[in-house]
Task: inverse folding
């Protein structure tokens, strides 16, 4: 009887014994970079491609890297570099979801900085790229002018552009981004000559989700 009691006591103690908690090492986790996957209106997934026709004549191909690649860039305040993340590369350039990296020349930092390609926010205003405005504002001003949201794949974002100074003030641009496809159409129209002076149309594509 005494022997049986010892067995029952041992079993009871085993059942009451708590499992050791799993300890996550934050240092080890920090060594694993995040992956910034593409967003719906600019789905530049690795292994994808887009074929365009420029001005109805010239074939233009956009391609992405075969895999996500590690990337970081210098901070503007000279405090080092951003944390490394995995991003897709489009035409050999890193894409941070709806942002590209644009270069600010000295004395404005002489570094790369995130720059919007597109936004899903209706009315969002930005410039196509960074420009040195000490010698005139030659930048193209962009605005998300239209967003059509449907249940199907035809949901689009229309970006309109114009110039406020220099030789392009008579011109306006249009870019159309289709959900789960990307850029499907782009043009520049001279409103004085009333003619399209540049056009880029998507002919076929492959998205490697």
Result:
């Amino acid at each position: 009887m005494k022997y049986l009691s010892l067995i029952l006591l041992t079993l009871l103690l085993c059942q009451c014994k708590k499992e050791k908690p799993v300890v996550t090492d934050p240092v080890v986790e920090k060594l694993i970079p995040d992956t910034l996957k593409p967003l719906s209106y600019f789905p530049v997934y690795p292994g994808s491609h887009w074929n365009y026709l420029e001005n109805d004549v010239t074939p233009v191909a956009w391609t992405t890297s075969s895999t996500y690649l590690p990337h970081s860039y210098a901070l503007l305040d000279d405090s080092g570099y951003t944390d490394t993340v995995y991003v897709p590369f489009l035409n050999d350039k890193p894409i941070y979801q709806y942002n590209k990296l644009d270069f600010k020349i000295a004395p404005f930092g002489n570094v790369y900085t995130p720059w919007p390609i597109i936004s899903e926010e209706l009315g969002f205003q930005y410039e196509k790229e960074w420009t040195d405005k000490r010698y005139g504002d030659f930048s193209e001003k962009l605005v998300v002018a239209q967003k059509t949201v449907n249940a199907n794949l035809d949901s689009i974002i229309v970006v309109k552009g114009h110039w406020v100074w220099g030789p392009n003030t008579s011109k306006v641009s249009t870019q159309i981004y289709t959900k789960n496809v990307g850029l499907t159409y782009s043009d520049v129209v001279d409103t004085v000559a009333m003619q399209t002076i540049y056009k880029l149309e998507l002919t076929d594509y492959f998205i490697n989700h």
Remarks:
- The two ends are 67 Å apart (CA to CA).
- The chain has one domain: 25-206.
